[in-house]
Amino acid sequence: MALPRIALEPAAPGAPPATETPFRGRWSLVYVGAGDCDADCRRALYVMRQTRLALNNDMTRVERVFLVSRACCERGFLAREHAGLVVLDAGAPSADSLLALFPAANREHTLFVVDPLGNLMMSYDARGNPRGLLEDLKKLLRLSHIG
Predict the structure, then answer these.
(1) Which residues contact 10 (CB under 8 A, 6 or more apart)?
(2) Measured CA distances, 72 to 9, 87, 113, 114 (Å)
(3) Where do the DSSP E strands lie in 21-60?
(4) Which CATH architecture has domain 26-142?
(5) How many CA within 13 A on the CB side of residue 140?
(6) Nearest CA to 108 among 79, 139, 69, 145?
(7) For residue 129, what pLDDT is reported?
(8) Average pLDDT over the chain, rounded to an integer
(9) 58-84 pLDDT, tens per residue?
(10) Measuring CA to CA, how many Å separate 57 from each of 21, 52, 54, 112, 145?
(11) Per-residue pLDDT for 20 more than 70?
């Protein structure tokens, strides 16, 4: 299922606006959550960061995206612990169609893998062992000639 191309505003004031959908051109690990960043959110962001780091040389092919569905954000924590994380405000009405493409069931515990063409590929429970996510990402990156 291909994700639509819509304009999203960055959650950080003064940050450059996102053009089109952020999932084009690179593999993306996506987490959709509220901006208050509770324990489940922090765990999911930690798993995303560590999984990307474990990719070693291929980590530059993967970006981490946090789609904030409500009030954003604990900026100090995100800047300190998750440098390089793309934080987008998806609470605007223009982002409803994008959020609808990410299954809502257990969303606060789920990491999504999006390919460089904007296709939603897989989802993983962030509470479980992240080894499966890492192994699948390594395989996808090895076999992919894009992104």
Answers:
(1) 16, 17, 18, 87, 88, 89
(2) 12, 9, 22, 23
(3) 27-33
(4) 3-Layer(aba) Sandwich (3.40)
(5) 22
(6) 69
(7) 92
(8) 82
(9) 999 999 999 888 777 777 888 889 999
(10) 25, 10, 9, 21, 15
(11) no
